[in-house]
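Morning F.,

Quick status update on the modeling queue. The single chain you submitted on Monday has been processed. Sequence for confirmation:
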Amino acid sequence: MKKHTRREFGATALSVIAASVLPAPFVRAADKKYDPGASDTEIKLGQTVPHSGPGSLYGVLGRVGEAYFQMLNDKGGINGRKVKFLTMDDAYSAPKCVEATRRLVEQDEVLALYGSLGTAPQTAVHKYLNSKGVPQLLLNTGASKWNDPKTYKWTMAGLPLYPTEARILAKHVVSVKPNARIGILYQNDDFGRDFLGPFKKVLTDAGGKAQVIMEQTYDLTDPTVDSQLINLSKSGADVFYNITTGKATSQSIRKVAELGWKPLQLLSAGSTGRSILSAAGLENAKDIVAIRYNKEVGVPRYEKDADVAAFEELRKKYLPNIDPDNTIAFAGYGQAATMGEILRRCGDDLTRANVLKHATTLAGFHSPYFLDGINYSYTPDDYTPMKTLYVSIFNGKDWDLAGEPMTE
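C-alpha cells below.
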C-alpha cells in the first residue's frame, strides 16, 4: 500500500489513524481490562441497518464501516488490536432489529454497537441494551428520547437532535423576521412534536412578537397534504415551517409553488435530500432554509477538502462500487472515524463502562464529516450530539451557508 501524505488523508483522518495504530504508552499487562468483545488481539463491534428492503440505501453505512476498520486493521488496528465489525440487516423492521441485536450481544458478544439506524427499530432494543449495559452509540436518528442519561445512560444519538434543530431555526426566524406570522405543517407523531414544542418555546422566550398563527397536521397514511397547504396559504402566514418527511415533503414544496404562496420556508434537515427535492422540483425548492452541519462529497466546493480527499482514497481502494457522490457513505465514514477515536481513547481498558465514559466525554471532537466550526458536544450529563449548527439556504442547486454557525 502506498504511503499517503497528510494532504491525501486529511488532518483529522490521519490523526485518528496514526494514533490508533500506536500502543497505549506505559501500560502493564496487569492494567488491561476486558469485557465481552475485547481481548489482547481483537475488538468486536456490532450494528444493525437496513441492508435490504425499502431502506436499503442506508446499508452503505455498514459497508463503509467494514471498509474503514479494514483500513485500520491493515495499518495495525487500534492500540494493537484488530477490529471485527459485524453489520447486520434489520430491513428497518423492529422485530428483525430485536433478533439481530440479540444475536450480536448474546452470540457474537460484541463490546458495543454503534451507528445503528432508525427511531422505531432502535426503540425496540433500547431497554434491552440498557438492561445489558451494552453501549448503543452514534445512532442514526435525532429523536429527543436518546438524550436521557439518567434513565438510559448506554444510549446516545449521533445526529443533531430534532429539538436542537428546531431551536436554531426559530432563532433564525426571530433574527430575520422579528414579527413573523408562522404556519406549521407537522407529522402527527413523536417526530413532528419533537420539533414543534422547542420551536414555539424559542418564540415565546424571544418576547412573542413572532407567532405561530396556524398549525396543520398530517398522517403518514394521508395520500396528499394539499388541503393542509391550502389552509396555511390562506392564513396570512409569511413563514412556513415544513416538518414533514418523504413524499409529504415533496408534495408540500411543490404545492406551495403551485399556490403562488411565497413564505420564508423552513425545512427539517432530514428531508433535504436530493431525491426529495428533485421530486418536488429543484426550482420549487429554491430559497428553502434548513440547518447544515456536514460536508458533502461529489460537489465542487469540497473537492479540495482534506477529509473529503481521505474518504475518496478509502472509497477507491476498498469500495470502488460506491459512487463518489454518496453522501450517506461519507456520513458512515465520519461515524466510523468517531467510533475509532472512542476506542483509541480507551487504551487497554476495553470495558463497556470505559467505552461509555469516552463516548460521553467527546465534547470538542471534530468528525471528518463535519463542517468547520462543528464539533461533538457530548458530556456525561447531556447527550446532545452537537449544539452548534449552520443555517443554510438552497440556491436551486446546492446549499449556501448563511453566515456563522448558530448555537441553540
